[in-house]
């Protein structure tokens, strides 16, 4: 692993998700934000590139609308000076942004991906990363999702949605890893 060739991509670590949880929505991986903080610390210590992705909706009623409190970044996910922040308006961090160009211009070939929600923006970005030829590592304990009701009215637990998303992405689109694996690999680069 090389610090120049490996970048951390933190997807949508925004307060809307804290607000959803405070309003009673149930999620999995309650310590995922702590794991994201661990990844940020490891990448910063290694001097490796970090890309913060923020979602901004054009729908005025969205939790992610410009000016809405939900669009703000979670405290543990704040960027530091020099770290790139990219704003997206759809699920993939590659659509309508310069993320791909920045990665290729910087010689990055491996993406360590984490964030919210596993089955939406994290999954879509991870799939596209694999399709674009990047080596994607999805950090399973540094991502989370929420319970959902399906089109037939069936209730799906966040844990099941998360697990199925990981199963769908495993091998073909991404390597599924744990935070401790990534932190150990990054520590070896210092």
From TrEMBL:
GO terms for molecular function: hydrolase activity. InterPro entries: Isochorismatase-like_dom, Isochorismatase-like_hydrls, Isochorismatase-like_sf. This is Cysteine hydrolase family protein. It comes from the Bacteria. The lineage of its organism: Bacteria, Pseudomonadati, Pseudomonadota, Alphaproteobacteria, Hyphomicrobiales. Residues 6-180 form the Isochorismatase-like domain. The keyword Secreted does not apply. Pfam families: Isochorismatase. Its EC number is 3.-.-.-. The keyword Hydrolase applies. Keywords: Hydrolase. It is an enzyme of class 3 (hydrolase).
């Amino acid at each position: 692993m090389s610090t120049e060739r490996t970048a951390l991509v933190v997807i949508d670590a925004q307060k809307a998700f804290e607000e959803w949880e405070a309003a009673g929505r149930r999620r999995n991986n309650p310590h995922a934000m702590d794991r994201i903080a661990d990844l940020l610390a490891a990448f910063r210590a290694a001097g490796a590139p970090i890309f913060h992705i923020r979602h901004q909706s054009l729908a005025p009623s969205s939790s992610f609308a410009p000016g809405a409190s939900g669009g703000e970044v979670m405290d543990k996910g704040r960027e530091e000076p020099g770290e790139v922040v990219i704003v997206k308006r759809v699920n993939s961090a590659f659509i309508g942004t310069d993320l791909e160009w920045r990665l290729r211009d910087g010689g990055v070939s491996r993406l360590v991906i984490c964030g919210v929600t596993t089955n939406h923006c994290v999954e879509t970005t991870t799939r596209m990363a694999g399709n674009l030829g990047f080596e994607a590592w999805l950090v399973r304990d540094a991502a989370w999702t929420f319970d959902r009701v399906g089109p037939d009215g069936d209730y799906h637990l966040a844990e099941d949605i998360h697990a199925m998303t990981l199963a769908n992405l495993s091998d073909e689109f991404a390597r599924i890893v744990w935070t401790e694996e990534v932190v150990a690999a990054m520590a070896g680069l210092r």
